[in-house]
Amino acid sequence: MLTFKYRAISRDGAKVSGVVEAFDEYEAVAKIKENCTVVTKIAQVEQRENLLHREVLPPRRISEKTLAVVSSQFSILLGSGIPVVRAVELIARQTNDKALKKILTQVAGDVASGFGLAQSFESKGRGLPTTFIETVRSGEESGTLDVAFGRLKTYYDKSSRTKAKVKSAMAYPLFTIVVAVIVVAIIMVVAVPVFLSSFAAMGAEMPLPTRMLIGLSNFFTHYGLAALGLLAAAAIALKLYGQREKGRLLFARLHLHLPVLGKIAVLKSASQFANTMSTLLAAGLPVIRAVATTGKVMDNYCIASQVLRMVPGLEEGKQLGLCMKRCQYLPELLMEMTGVGEETGTMETTLEVVGSYYDNETELASQKALSLLEPVVICILALLVGFILLAVYAPMFAMYNGVM
User: Fold this and answer.
1) In which broad location class does this protein mainly occur, judging by the first location in its UniProt entry (predicted)?
2) pTM over 0.90, yes/no
């Protein structure tokens, strides 16, 4: 809603001024005239967002787990015959997510004023994904909002469970790496200089591993903070470059060509494409709109760009299976099955089955990669610890041999 400042003459003839919220100037004037006879001046207040909040901190995205719960609540309430406005108000009161509560509260006001639910979500829900909004819009247009929310519940529940499994599997290796880095840094900065200074005071000859360790320890002690600063600056520079068109495309393409991780990215993209398309088609969206929406929500920017390039071909009347041939990174099986579903008129069901298949393949590939990562991490840690022990004990053995 917009904010308007106004000056007016009240019913008793007094000059008054104030602020009113409305969707447009006509509605604002109507609200003012409920208490005043004449509106002498009205102007829209420019809403300037905080620069830091607008440019540096993007709107917080609502988690898929939360979207699954909310979609389930909407499906149950609307299926029970509760009006849309009442359903939005009830869910807004019950949710613990502050960002979602704010969105739903504003949406309830919009819907009560006569605006559509999807239109209100689109204008107020900056943290809501395009798939959510477009599915709601389709359900609203076809009069099957409860069914549309039911499909969204299934879609987001499935997606959130898959991501949760991957995160759970990654937790232990990441924890091990972080702890190892901290321990090694403490040893290099605190413990090693004490040992080595004692050996140097005794006049012991330093072997090569010990001299290498001294050099590393001196570097961490004197230039550690500067190195961290450079790494942070490089990370920020890469982050900013990755927000540009060329940078996003370059990093996405590099991700697809990485060993092991590239295969997982391709499988995940295939899963996203199939599941999102199935959900949107089941909600009643035309193929062209479904493809355009799917291209906007895919994680890998390179594949997303190729999916969006299919839209002009579809608008020319070409088949989806044929247009997909231009996507060099999507799996051949996905293209073939989409073409079969298109020819038999069962694309929605076919893509749902294919989506489940690629969900399983993504999970298996992730587990396999993590099973390979754990021994690699252990080997690297063993080499690091072995090198430090060798560098510390080598002078002691040299001194012992000299005494003998």
Assistant:
1) membrane
2) no
Give the separation between CA 334 and CA 306, rounded to whole angstroms.
Answer: 15
Residues 255 and 265: beta-carbon distance below 8 Å: yes
d(CA 207, CA 398): 8
DSSP 8-state assignment for residue 53: I
Convert 267-284 into a string of H (helix), E (strand) and C (coil).
HHHHHHHHHHHHHHHHCC
Q: Which residue has the tokens 């050099």?
A: 215
Spatial distance between the Cα atoms of 10 and 12, rounded to a whole number of angstroms: 5
Radius of gyration of the chain from Cα atoms?
30
82 burial class (0-12, 13-18, 19+ CB within 10 angstroms)? middle
Answer whether 103's CB lies under 8 Å from 124's CB: yes
CB-based contacts of 247-250 (< 8 A; 24+ apart in sequence): 248/301, 249/301, 249/302, 249/305
pLDDT tens-place string over residues 72-117 = 999 999 999 999 999 999 999 988 888 889 899 999 888 888 888 8
CB 299 within 8 A of CB 269: yes
Rounded Cα distance, 91 and 102, in Å: 11
Closest to 303 (Cα-Cα) out of 327, 279, 280: 327
Q: How far apart are CA 270 and CA 303, in angstroms?
A: 9
- Domain residue limits, the chain: 2-47
